[in-house]
Amino acid sequence: MTRTPIEEEVLASIKPLRAEHNHVWEVAEKLLFDIDASGIATGMVVGSVARDTWVRGDRDLDIFMLFPPSLPREELESKGLALARAIGRKYHASMREKYAEHPYINLSINGLDIDLVPCYAVETASGIQSAVDRTPFHTRYIRERIRQLSDDVLLLKQFAKTGGVYGSDQMTEGFAGYLCELLILHYHGFSGVLRAAAEWRPHTLIDIEGHAAKHFDEPLVVIDPVDPARNVAASLSLSRMFEFVELCRGYLDAPSPAFFRPGPPESLGREEFAGLLTGRRTAVYAITFATPHTIPDIVVPQLRKSLDAIEGMLLRYGFVVNRTDCAMEERHCMLLFEMLVDVLPPLKRHMGPPLWNRANAEKFFLAYPEGTYSGPYIEDGRYWVEIPRKHTRVDELLASESPLKIALGRHVKMAMQEGWTLHSGTDCWSEEFAPFLAAFLARESPLRRILRRTEGS
Asked: Nearest 5 degrees, angle CA 183-CA 187-CA 188?
């Protein structure tokens, strides 16, 4: 596999060191022994560690506890959690319960972040009983095919991480590790992925096994080799897809180590934030509330739904929105709105029916006998009135009960019913959301960000 000197240099810096590799597997083998010794489940290392596609410094270890498929779902959960907790106590590990499709235990042992996940030991991927049952099949599929290309996977992961498009979580909507591995297999290496992706169009289809069992409408469709009815790239948004396309084009045009070197997290102090707001001369408002107590994959889509609903409300009242965004941190969530117009005159034009719709026109005429600035009057064959506006300021509207009367996400609405805080201008800034606010105000494409860092170095 031919690589450029830049790529060889990057590989030397991101491949796990032998001592690091040995440490991870030493811990893994102890945990596998403990699971097997329980007599109720068998252990299996899955994910990038099992496939030797992990980047130096990654401290994540995923181990599945495979139970008989005949075990009822409730017992899978109870026995799986009990076994994981017993193992955690043996190593005096810090533990916390986390949730995917069903609960599992996260441990911290010898500097490693370890997930012990119960699943069913089904014989075929078509027989899965929960989504996590598919993961062992992914591991076997990749492990059997990736050996000669594992270094290319490392390059692609590092490239995607630096570009900010790595991660299939709901907030990132980017490239999962498994997706990166499949792209490397399909395009026969890192350079093959970049050359092909530079020409991607929406609804690009990749079907390595040629066995797609249904049609998908997502921006990128990569049929799962072990499940013909699943799109591995389902969580990839159109924006992340074409940010990756831009990165590929940029690197192919002018290769640079900067495409593999993540910069420090960008943030803003309060004074910097205030300075940017002064320069933009826009009005910024933020709603913050306690983060709902459920998994991020449930909360984040509801945040986006709520953001869209409130933006729609602002537009219906006549305010002009420039951009919006949302963030979820451990303690609080934020819905952010940048307004081009946040104060309106008290007068509002309100359209009525055309006069040839006689019944409705007469009802409209009678509905506004007085209390209007003007009207009813006729313009282009229909009635109009100019009436007092209910809310003339964005802060009045957002501080009212109106946000709770629209279609918010269920958990978001429950959290806001417990109380929310409205911030405006510089008061939107907090240490908790400083990186999010920096990214919002200084928004730029991944290639522009990399080139800026290169130009400034």
From this structure: 110
